[in-house]
Design a protein that fits this description.
By secondary structure, this protein is mostly helical. The chain is built from six helices and no strands. Helix 4 packs antiparallel against helix 5. The model has no long low-confidence stretch (mean pLDDT about 85).
Length: about 170
């Protein structure tokens, strides 16, 4: 459940200055390295409170030594939730910053690849005639036999003579 800034200030007291950097106007002013350092400190605080709450639960069950002056578990968990929410905001900002950098890097890599491709010489031969030149007759692969025209006439006359003989 979301906690407003006034409640965060009441819960954390002097530690609120660290969490205040994770709220909107201040968070956008941070660059990637500052946001990363803030995320580390918020994560340490959250983990410390989580460990304390875990130790309190173990002590209540009788599995560990009870700690002197341990704060109430509910208040500690609310403080941990404040740090967790702040960490979530900072991580979202880091994702945005890294996403912008990643997109810029990929765009530069793609532009470089396109420039290399355009500069490279074609490694394949041309495709030959294109459709714009129109159709071309393909030479026939059949064997060409030239018959003497006199031979054609001789065969025709032979057939006529043979037919006349049969008709008589």
């Amino acid at each position: 459940m979301a906690t407003n800034i006034a409640a965060e200030r009441r819960l954390l007291g002097d530690d609120f200055a660290v969490v205040a950097q994770s709220h909107y106007p201040a968070l956008t002013a941070l660059d990637a390295t500052e946001a990363l350092a803030l995320a580390r400190s918020l994560r340490e605080q959250r983990n410390r409170l989580r460990g304390m709450a875990h130790a309190n639960r173990r002590a209540r069950r009788g599995k560990a030594e009870p700690r002197a002056a341990a704060p109430s578990d509910a208040a500690m968990m609310r403080r941990k939730q404040v740090y967790a929410a702040a960490l979530k905001r900072v991580n979202a900002r880091l994702d945005t910053l890294h996403g912008q950098a990643r997109r810029a890097w990929h765009a530069a890599a793609l532009h470089g690849a396109l420039a290399r491709k355009n500069a490279a010489k074609a490694h394949h031969p041309t495709g030959g005639d294109s459709a714009s030149l129109g159709m071309h007759a393909k030479p026939s692969r059949k064997r060409i036999v030239r018959t003497d025209p006199r031979e054609i006439g001789r065969v025709s006359q032979f057939v006529k003579n043979a037919q006349a003989k049969r008709d008589r």
